[in-house]
Amino acid sequence: MALWVEKHRPATLDKLTFHSGLTDHLRQLANSGDLPHLLVYGPTGAGKRTRIAAVLREVFGPGADKLKVSQRVFETPTRRKLEINLISSNFHIEVNPSDAGIYDRVIIQDLIKEIAQTQQVATTSARKFKVVVVHEADALSRDAQHALRRTMEKYMGNMRVILCSSSTGKIISPVQSRCLLVRVAAPTIDEVVDVMNIVAKKEGITVPPAFARQLAASSNRNLHRALLMLEAAYVRQYPFDESHEPPLPEWEEYIRKTAHAAIQAQTPAQLMAIRKQLYEVLTHCIPASTILKTIAMHLIDSVGEALKPVVAHQAAFYEHRLQSGQKAIVHLEAFMAKFMSVYKRHLMDAA
Amino acid sequence: MDFFGKPKSDQSSASAKNGKAAETAKHDERMVPWVEKYRPKNIDDITAQEEVVQVLRKSLETKNLPHLLFYGPPGTGKTSTILALTRDMYGPEAAKTRVLELNASDERGISVVREKVKTFARAVVSQADPRYPSPPYKIVILDEADSMTGDAQAALRRIIEKYSRITRFCLICNYVSRIIEPLASRCTKFRFKSLPRDQAVARVEHVAQLESVRCREGAVGALVDCAAGDLRRAIMSLQSAARMVHGGDGALDADMVAELVGVVPSAVIESLRAAWNAADSGALRTVVDELIYSGYPASQVLAQLHDRAMEDQQLGSLQKAKIALVMATVDKALNDGADEQLQLLDMMMQASRIAQSA
Question: Record keywords: Secreted included (chain B) (predicted)?
Fold first, then answer.
């Protein structure tokens, strides 16, 4: 049984619900016979992948839906063998270069060259190009992006690249200027609610409007997450109880408690306790920057007006350190200790 | 499938099968980047850069050309100029055998300089085309020369001098400081200025007209402004934009251009600026969250907000300086890959505090 998110994913451009202006543009592009390189960006859960898949279907017809997973071995210049999973159809191929770590350049070059040098043979298709979809393009190393820049121009004849990324900030500008930028904004709360109602109707359940709004709001306007939460809530209890709080993921609940602990007491003993909790979350593979961000947002909400800028500043400062540093726990702990000291001083000044 | 069917001229998908040949030809035509298609063909076509053109025209008459070093920001016509010059000099056919062009995408380590460049440099000059000036030397173009290693540049020194009788070199780079001194002193330096706005606009309009892209008032201006003097980028954007309106009956307008090249609309920037004056930080948070949800790239927002703040009449010099400092720190953090939401929130809160302090 597939998850609702997958089961009710719109497969064609016509079935997409929100951003109708963007959808029209994409349809025009797909039907104009020629597709430029695309760079699709926007927050997670806004429907980037869904749109890419829909565009491919519009361009190549239903054949683009027949996906197969294959495994390919690439060899690095230092003779190391890399095994990479590829998802492909007759018309396109999807890669996620973050699997490759520092060797992403090799993969990009080999793969794109190989595709570019083989002509499209399927006679049924009216297009003479294939498409390479690169997911998480912001994780591509600079080297790989520079390699892309050259290949994108050289093999324009029979290959197109679609990059999918959460922000354009980490894509080098020569690559950006070769692509058509497509921004996919997060859906508004109403739009999330609409989609939830559509899914609920298909599943034959009813969602009270107030509950749907609550879910949409606590999903941070992330459609993917909202639908997962809806399904989770359905599995837990149906019919929905309107007064019921939408369930947060367990780790988020746990982190909130950690943040709360820092507000309650500011002692070395408390710091030790918090440290244990942080370790606990880290060992469950929650990304460190997500932990820090969740804590910070919760703290900013809890402290008084005068302290908010200070907490925001410290959070930004330690999150930056976290990115440049090696060991996550050090920076998480430093942030908590800093917050405690700032908060305690504030309390003492107030008293 | 009917291969011999008469090609139809309209391009609906039904006719795609019948008129495949015609369609293919049209495809290939459309796939050529306009940047290549509208590269100046001869030296009189070149927009702006009067001094350089004047000197080069003189050298065409006297058939005497020094070694050249072109430098300047991207998209100002460095490569176009030298290509146009060679065409005027040798004619399109002979230019193929008389010119060696190497750019950064080719391998250009010391071994290539030693073998490829040297072999070419010392080869005898080929047959000239009598219809063109065809001076008795060949030209080696080293595009993006600032990315050559120091060793490779050093290896060039002697080659340039030794074969100067039959070979002239043209080095092209963005930063003249990355060319080693001995190499730079062997060449005549030409600086390429950023294109003046009106000339860039005229050029883009010209391309748009030839490609029959309909543009509303201000669209071309927006294209040029976004490209900041880089004509290649402006024309690239124009081509992408044209694909967007192609087939439909819409015309290009300034807002569409802004969306295409990834510029944040000024209304969003204004709302950020307005939030600085808000009394509580709740407003700041909403505005930042909204920004993140909309998917605008933080670095772009920061750059535009910086421009906006620096021209702000309500802020004093000291305030502006402080805000610039905050923005610089945040920009560095963003560049290191820090979280966009936290960084923006921090920047907004600090800036707001500075803006409100008298």
Answer: no
**Of residues B33 and A303, more confidently modeled:** A303
Q: Which fold, A19-183?
A: Rossmann fold (3.40.50)
* Three-class secondary structure of residue B82 per DSSP: helix
Residue with the two structure tokens 């190989």: A114
Q: What is each CA distance from B247 to A56, A346, B12, in whole angstroms?
A: 19, 63, 10
Euclidean distance between CA atoms B348 and A25, whole angstroms: 34
- pLDDT by residue (tens digit) across B28-52? 555 677 877 888 888 888 877 888 8
Q: Which residue has the higher pLDDT, B28 or A179?
A: A179
Distance to chain B for A204, nearest Cα, Å: 31
Q: Test A156 with B33 for CB contact under 8 angstroms.
A: yes
DSSP 3-state of A287: coil
Say yes or no: B286 contacts chain A, CB-CB below 8 A.
no
Task: Among A157, A312, A313, select the one facing B31 at the smallest CB separation.
Answer: A157
Confidence of residue A217 (pLDDT cuts 50, 70, 90): confident
Q: Within a 10 A sphere around the Cβ of B103, how many other Cβ atoms? A: 15
Residue B190 half-sphere exposure toward CB, CA atoms < 13 A = 23
Whether A180 and B336 lie within 8 Å, measured CB to CB? no
Pick from A31, A168, A323: which is nearest to B247 by CB? A31
Q: Which of 166-225 (B) contact A at CB < 8 A?
A: none
Tokens of A339: 């917050």
Tokens encoding B110: 């010391």
Interface-testing mutation among B8, B20, B243, with chain A (most A C-beta atoms within 10 A): B243
Contact at CB, A305 and B247, closer than 8 angstroms: no
Cβ pairs A/B, distance under 8 A: 141
Strand (E) or helix (H) holding B281: helix B281-294
The values of phi and psi at residue A20, to 5°, are -65, -30
Q: How far apart are CA B46 and CA B81, in angstroms?
A: 7
The DSSP bridge partners found for residue A163 are A39, A134
| Structure-token pair, residue B120 | 């070419």
Nearest-CB residue to B333 (from A180, A220, A320): A320
Beta bridge partners of B167: B138
Q: Does the beta-carbon distance from B260 to A180 stay under 8 Å?
A: yes
Interface test with chain A among B339, B340, B341, B348, by most A beta carbons within 10 Å: B339
**Beta strands across the sheet bearing B138-142:** B99-102, B138-142, B167-173, B68-71, B188-191
Substitution target in A123, A129, A180, A190 with the highest count of B β-carbons within 10 Å is: A180
The backbone torsions φ and ψ at residue A53, rounded to the nearest 5 degrees and listed phi first, read -60, -40
Q: What is the pLDDT of residues B207-252, one digit of tens each?
A: 888 888 888 878 888 888 887 778 888 887 888 777 777 655 567 7
Q: CA A202 to CA A79: how far, in whole Å? A: 52
CATH 1.20.120.430 fits A250-350, yes or no: no
Partners of A131 in beta bridges? A92, A160
Nearest to A340 by CA among A279, A281, A265: A265
Those residues whose C-beta lies under 8 Å from the C-beta of residue A183, and which sit 6 or more positions away, are A41, A42, B259, B262, B294, B295, B296
Please report, for residues A266, B14, B41, B125, B242, the alpha-carbon distance to residue A29 in angstroms, rounded to integers and kept in the order given. 58, 17, 31, 49, 10
